[in-house]
């Protein structure tokens, strides 16, 4: 068993409960601000999460509701900056909370000298303040969709984190919540622990090393406890 040197976290739905009460709210507010009748309820948004990336998600929606493809794409590209601005306001107002167990896991990893990184396709404009407000300055490397536009399940954002840090994939673990995230991590040759949420319980997460019901799931907590204890034993 190789030493655990780094943990690479996804953000949306993994570290924070951001989808239902963050992004969905911001999308709906952007629609209203633009005078559009479109609204995404909780169940509808859960289905739309199968489409990775906010601009792609809106484009798909606009096309599926009868807009011509070119108009749907133009509308989505025009609205996405507004959605990002609204999302940032929600973040700064403290509306996006850490998932149960997130802070405890981060503290445990920090105490054991494990480097903490982030690999997300979210926009840096809201990701940075969210991480700072929710967790402080604990992450060594943060790579976002602003720098790496390839969406998961592309492994590009994970490969960028590995390239920047020089960490070998066998010495790192990714923490994800969704099928696309797990596929992205494993395509980068990382072991992946999946902390599913209400939106991703129906996802195929079979490529993950462990599938847990959240970051506070005793099975996930025990998995990290065992890894960290084994590392301590090997150091003696």
Automatic annotation (TrEMBL):
Transmembrane regions: none
Cross-referenced InterPro entries: CbbY-like, HAD-like_sf, HAD-SF_hydro_IA, HAD_sf, PGP-like_dom2
Gene3D superfamilies membership: HAD superfamily/HAD-like, Putative phosphatase, domain 2
Name the record gives this protein: Phosphatase
């Amino acid at each position: 068993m190789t030493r655990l040197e780094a943990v690479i976290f996804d953000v949306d739905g993994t570290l924070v409960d951001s989808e239902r009460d963050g992004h969905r709210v911001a999308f709906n507010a952007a629609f209203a601000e633009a005078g559009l009748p479109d609204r995404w309820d909780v169940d509808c948004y859960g289905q739309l999460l199968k489409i990775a990336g906010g601009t792609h998600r809106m484009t798909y929606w606009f096309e599926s509701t009868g807009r011509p493809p070119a108009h749907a794409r133009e509308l989505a590209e025009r609205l996405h900056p507004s959605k990002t601005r609204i999302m940032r306001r929600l973040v700064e107002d403290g509306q996006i909370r850490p998932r149960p167990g997130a802070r405890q896991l981060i503290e445990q990893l920090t105490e054991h000298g494990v480097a903490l990184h982030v690999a997300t396709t979210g926009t840096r404009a809201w990701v940075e303040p969210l991480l700072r407000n929710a967790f402080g300055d604990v992450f060594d490397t943060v790579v976002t969709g602003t720098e790496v536009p390839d969406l998961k399940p592309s492994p590009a954002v994970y490969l960028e984190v590995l390239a920047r840090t020089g960490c070998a994939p066998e010495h790192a673990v990714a923490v994800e919540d969704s099928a696309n995230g797990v596929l992205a991590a494993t395509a980068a040759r990382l072991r992946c622990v999946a902390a599913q949420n209400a939106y991703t319980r129906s996802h195929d997460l079979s490529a993950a090393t462990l599938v847990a019901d959240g970051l506070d799931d005793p099975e996930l907590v025990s998995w990290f406890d065992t890894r960290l204890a084994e590392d301590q034993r090997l150091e003696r």
